[in-house]
């Protein structure tokens, strides 16, 4: 599985954990809610859905009939097929949520992971945020060294572009610092889970977004931070 297809599967499972949807609804949510998927097509989504169904993580239902009614093939009337998360799919998604390996710190994967922080335990959120911050601090140091070595040989526009890149990374590091501080302070501004009950952290503690966030905070899916 490629890294990008793995991110897409994670996002689809997360969205369907909130509620069943058909392909059009899923694509719309992926386009509008998760910036990392702004430019993907049905040709990418439907093979992913088919794989998840084959793995037993989703089931297909016909929106024209009762729940559990046989669905048309994936290649047929797609808008009439509703996808629902199975118990195995929910368990698999929760397992993915608990993973905090290096991939979780990369630009695209971090954006998808952050979108589902409301369903993620506090200790995992902290590890992902701290890992992302460490990764960006390493990137920023390399950018500064490169800028210092090449600034005498570059024209003003190229230099300005490099400054813009560094400033974008610096803004995200500051944003991450605020989030980490807020998590440590134990503030919780999360919404209830899709089943109506307040989502509980496995640690027994709560965390949340910093209060009074302003419009200068970077979007974690913003590719200017790459």
What does this protein look like?
InterPro entries: Metal_resp_DNA-bind_regulator, Tscrpt_reg_PadR_N, WH-like_DNA-bd_sf, WH_DNA-bd_sf. It comes from Streptomyces beihaiensis. Keywords: Coiled coil. This is Helix-turn-helix transcriptional regulator. By secondary structure, the protein is mostly helical. The protein has helices at residues 3-18, 23-33, 42-54, 87-97, 107-115, 122-150, 156-185; strands spanning 21-22, 58-62, 81-85. Strands 1-3-2 form a 3-stranded antiparallel beta sheet. The longest helix is centred in the last third of the chain and has 30 residues, at 156-185.
Topology summary:
Blueprint: H1 3-18, E1 21-22, H2 23-33, H3 42-54, E2 58-62, E3 81-85, H4 87-97, H5 107-115, H6 122-150, H7 156-185
Helix pairs in contact: 1-3, 1-4, 1-5, 6-7
Please give the order of strands in the largest beta sheet: 1-3-2
Summarize model confidence as the mean pLDDT: 79
Number of strands: 3
Q: Sheet bearing the most strands, described?
A: 3 strands, antiparallel
**In the residues, how many domains can be counted?**
2
- Gyration radius (Cα, Å) is 20 Å
Q: Judging from the principal axes of the Cα atoms, what is the shape?
A: elongated
Figure out the total of helices: 7
Estimate the helix proportion, in percent: 40-55%
Distance N to C terminus = 23 Å
* Contiguous uncertain segments of 5+ residues: 66-72, 188-192, 196-206, 212-216
Order of H and E elements: HEHHEEHHHH
Structural class: mainly alpha
Q: Beta-sheet strand percentage? A: 5-15%
Domain Transcription regulator PadR N-terminal: 12-94
Region (Disordered): 182-226
Coiled coil: 126-153
Keywords: Coiled coil
């Amino acid at each position: 599985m490629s890294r990008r297809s793995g991110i897409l599967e994670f996002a689809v499972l997360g969205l369907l954990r909130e509620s069943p949807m058909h392909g059009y609804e899923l694509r719309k949510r992926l386009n509008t809610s998760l910036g990392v998927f702004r430019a993907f097509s049905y040709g990418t989504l439907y093979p992913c859905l088919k794989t998840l169904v084959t793995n037993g993580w989703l089931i297909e239902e016909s929106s024209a009939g009762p729940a559990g009614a046989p669905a048309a093939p994936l290649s047929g009337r797609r808008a009439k097929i509703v996808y629902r998360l199975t118990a195995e799919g929910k368990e698999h998604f929760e397992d993915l949520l608990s993973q905090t390996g290096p991939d979780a710190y990369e630009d695209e994967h971090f954006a998808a992971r952050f979108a589902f922080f409301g369903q993620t335990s506090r200790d995992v959120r902290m590890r992902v945020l701290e890992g992302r911050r460490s990764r960006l601090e390493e990137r920023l140091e390399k950018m500064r060294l490169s800028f210092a070595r090449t600034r005498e040989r570059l024209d003003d526009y190229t230099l300005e572009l490099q400054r813009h890149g560094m400033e974008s990374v610096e803004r995200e590091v500051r944003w991450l610092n605020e989030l980490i501080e807020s998590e440590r302070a134990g503030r919780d501004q999360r919404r209830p889970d899709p089943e109506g009950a307040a989502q509980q952290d496995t640690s027994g503690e709560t965390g949340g977004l910093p209060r009074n966030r302003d419009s200068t905070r970077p979007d974690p899916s913003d590719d200017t931070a790459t």
